[in-house]
Amino acid sequence: MLIRPSRRRLLLGSAATAATALLGGCDALVDNDHVSRVIASAEGLTKAAQRAVLSDTKLAREFTQTDLSPVFKANGTQQPEGEAYAELVETRFANWRLRVDGKVVKPLELSLAELKSLPARTQITRHDCVEGWSAIGQWTGVPLGLVLKAAGLTSDARFVVFHCADEYEKTLDGSGQYYESIDLVDAFHPQTILAYAMNGQELPVAHGAPLRLRVERQLGYKHAKYVMRIEAVDSLAPIGRGKGGFWEDRGYEWYAGI
Amino acid sequence: MTTLQPSSVASSAAALPRRRLVYRHALAVRLTHWLNVICLMFLLLSGLQIFNAHPSLYWGQYGANADQPFIDIGAVRDGDRIRGVTRIGPVSIPTTGVLGASSVNGETRARAFPAWLTLPSYTDLATGRRWHFFFAWLFVINGLAYLIYGLAAGHFRRDLLPDADQLKPAHLVREIADHAHLRFPKGEAARRYNALQKLAYLAVIIVLLPLMVATGLTMSPGMNAAWPWLVDLFGGRQSARTLHFISASLIVAFVVVHLVMVLVSGLWNNLRSMITGRFAIDTDRSP
């Protein structure tokens, strides 16, 4: 009836061995391609679940002036390199043009003054970094949907890509250039704006001057700074390393709602 | 399969066996228990990887480097050495070697939680997040399956809800004294969980584990838009992050106590009962 000590020892011994192997083998598991694919499958589930409980127009919470962070942390690139950008700053972005092209009926080139003449939206929202910190700031800008409607998306457009002025990682093939992408649900969300002002001031260079994306229901890395060009596409595969963004190309989720 | 009846006894033919096996844990309980062990282990290790990306905790809606943290695991330079310092409110504790600064390939580096406590062992937030969310889904599905089973099969009512006699102050005081002396119920009394055990399990099942899910979801900007009441419930995203950490620490504390209890109250018997379902009780009353 009772299990003999030798068998008991054997069972306990193998349990201890398994536990040690499990802890020591975590990195091996992480590096395994098959395991990684299974683990990554949860992203689709997360996106489907969030979209199921989140209507396309449900707003992120908006705060008041008294809720603003005393210091809004600047992260990622805080000063793009290169003469071209330096010249833009020097001329206060007078010669800067936002290109809107790709799968559009009418490609656009918009100056900062033209963008500012369009109907604007101001929102005080919480910015959540993937690292874990949050900051509350006020943003003013043009709803992205207005710009896209002006350009007229063709029927095969599925994503909107934001090409940025900053090269975040030095690479030989140029894949270190910052870019981001969102789908049309987020592109036409009322709070998705191209912000040119922050906390009532012109958008500072550290926060993405002259123009940064706000896509309030997702994490900070989706909020592309230094936006130079907006491209409507039917597939993300040909851009960068094909995952839809600088950080996505480096393992982060494309859907950053969590 | 799902009963804890006295009749489901596998005993020897002797009229008064000294030791007999009773069927204690239903298959559903055993399966969900071990799946939960796997989930919690990966959630903890990947969670500490995520924590390391910003090892400060705040209270309220916002919180970043310029704001006053509530808990902070940092590193300070001391000449050409790095020292780990953990701050909880106004208290600073030197924690070099474990928290704040620890050895990475033989060299002391600034790092909130040490390499041996994170998944992967090297710094990789993206991987930590992917593993965390995969096991969070598994944990939630497994937890729901357990809750449905527990309610439908009467497991909570029968096995986990303390009986009236167990809640009498005198009984509770005696149980506390018994625990302090590592004296555990024998014979028929060992058939049911003791009151402290029941209360501890219920606190984890009803409070801590759901709190982990709720505070985790409160950190999601997508879920904040969908269910803004979650943010209000915890007083802000950064409060929720702090509570997520505290709640995880309490679960770790529970697991430590749980493992010690498993060890001192009969390791093999406890382990077998959670694997095969069968638990041996002594029917010999003589000391």
UniProtKB/TrEMBL annotation, chain A:
Keywords from the named record: Signal
Gene3D superfamilies per the UniProt record, alphabetical: Oxidoreductase, molybdopterin-binding domain
Alphabetized CDD domains for the sequence: bact_SO_family_Moco (cd02108)
Name under which the protein is recorded: Molybdopterin oxidoreductase
Domain Oxidoreductase molybdopterin-binding: from-to ranges: 92-234
Regions that span the bilayer: none
Keyword Signal carried by entry: yes
One Pfam family named in its UniProt record: Oxidored_molyb
InterPro entries noted in UniProt: OxRdtase_Mopterin-bd_dom, OxRdtase_Mopterin-bd_sf, TAT_signal
Signal peptide coordinates: 1-21
From TrEMBL, chain B:
GO biological process, one term: respiratory electron transport chain
Keywords, in A-Z order: Cell membrane, Membrane, Transmembrane, Transmembrane helix
Gene Ontology CC terms, in alphabetical order: plasma membrane
A Pfam family: Ni_hydr_CYTB
Subcellular localization: Cell membrane
Start and end residues of each Cytochrome b561 bacterial/Ni-hydrogenase domain: 24-277
SUPFAM superfamilies linked: Transmembrane di-heme cytochromes
Membrane topology designation: Multi-pass membrane protein
UniProt GO molecular function: electron transfer activity; heme binding
UniProt-listed InterPro entries: Cyt_b561_bac/Ni-Hgenase (IPR011577), Di-haem_cyt_TM (IPR016174), Hydrogenase_cytochrome (IPR051542)
Parts of the chain that traverse the membrane: 27-51, 131-152, 199-223, 243-268
Record's protein name: Cytochrome b561 bacterial/Ni-hydrogenase domain-containing protein
